[in-house]
Design brief:
six-stranded antiparallel beta barrel; about 300 residues
Length: about 300
């Protein structure tokens, strides 16, 4: 008697076909970005669920902010007034220095650096993968965000945009092991590449000769090479600089200036090489909620 349902391919053959198709899809996406548009659409579909999952934490934060005594609020206001007074005096000096810098650049025939557009973004979630340092923010393609866009805060460089959805974006932090950031030592203009170590509080400066003039405490800033990050943004301070016998290069480590495990607000920068899609700029939050916290080559390792 002939069976009603014929037997299909064996389980081993199905597994083999699934593995082959998966590998082909991974290679095609990593080399040719075949599924870039699909990823954007899927991110747009998932973003409401991400906002919904983040809602309880947001509600708890707002409730804890409201439960404060009057004395605490008065003390906080006094501290903010003192901080505002100090920042205003520094701003007066900064305006003078900007005009002086502009005149010197004109005398030297060097192009004047223009003020870049900025937009405030807020953290939604943190990637749960311990081997991937990525975060999700609440700005996307509808706000003009683009892949590779630099992300900073009031303390220094955070990372760059890795994937863009319609209303959210994924940011790759500078400490991710696949991230490289061209920097220079502020003291002597020595150039290097700050590579992510996979730890939130450590960067590595690799392939530096053992006689390199770099000292513990040196400040590293973006070098501007590559055109992705503007020049001069602080990145990290050197915490180790020594030579281990038997190794060809010096062992140099640095600590990011931004506490990457305590992010909340951050700034998206628009460089001169990218067109501005919106005319109005977002205003920065008040002092009580100030943002916490290369030319990035941030390439995925094959």
């Amino acid at each position: 008697m002939k069976p009603i349902f014929g037997r299909g391919p064996s389980l081993q053959l199905r597994l083999f076909l699934a593995v082959v198709i998966s590998i082909a899809a991974i290679v095609a996406d990593s080399r040719f970005n075949v599924f870039e548009h699909v990823r954007v659409y899927l991110g747009s579909l998932v973003s409401p669920l991400q906002y919904l999952a983040n809602a309880p934490g947001t509600m708890l934060d707002s409730m804890s902010d409201q439960v404060q005594t009057r004395a605490d609020l008065i003390e906080q206001t006094k501290q903010q007034e003192k901080q505002l007074f100090t920042l205003r005096t520094r701003l007066l000096q900064m305006e003078h220095l900007e005009h002086e810098n502009q005149r010197l650049r004109e005398l030297l025939g060097s192009p004047v650096q223009k003020e870049s557009r900025k937009m405030v973004a807020e953290l939604i979630s943190v990637d749960s993968d311990p081997f991937s340092h990525q975060i999700l923010i609440n700005k996307g393609a509808l706000d003009g965000v683009y892949n590779g866009q630099p992300v900073i805060n009031d303390q220094g460089v955070i990372g760059q945009v890795l994937h863009v959805g319609s209303t959210t974006s994924r940011v790759l932090l500078i400490t991710d092991s696949s991230h490289g950031l061209p920097v220079r030592v502020l003291r002597n203009d020595l150039r290097a590449i700050a590579t992510g170590s996979g730890e939130l509080d450590k960067l590595e400066l690799r392939n530096l000769p053992r006689n390199t003039d770099i000292q513990v405490g040196d400040l590293l800033v973006t070098s501007g090479l590559g055109g992705r990050f503007p020049e001069g943004y602080p990145v990290a301070t050197v915490t180790r600089s020594d030579y281990v016998e038997g190794k060809p290069f010096a062992q140099v480590e640095a600590k990011p200036l931004v506490p990457l495990d305590r992010l909340r607000y951050m700034l998206l920068l628009w460089t001169d090489k990218r067109p501005e899609l919106h005319d109005d700029e977002a205003q920065a939050p008040s002092a009580s909620t100030a943002v916490s916290g290369a030319t990035s080559t941030a390439e995925k390792k094959p």
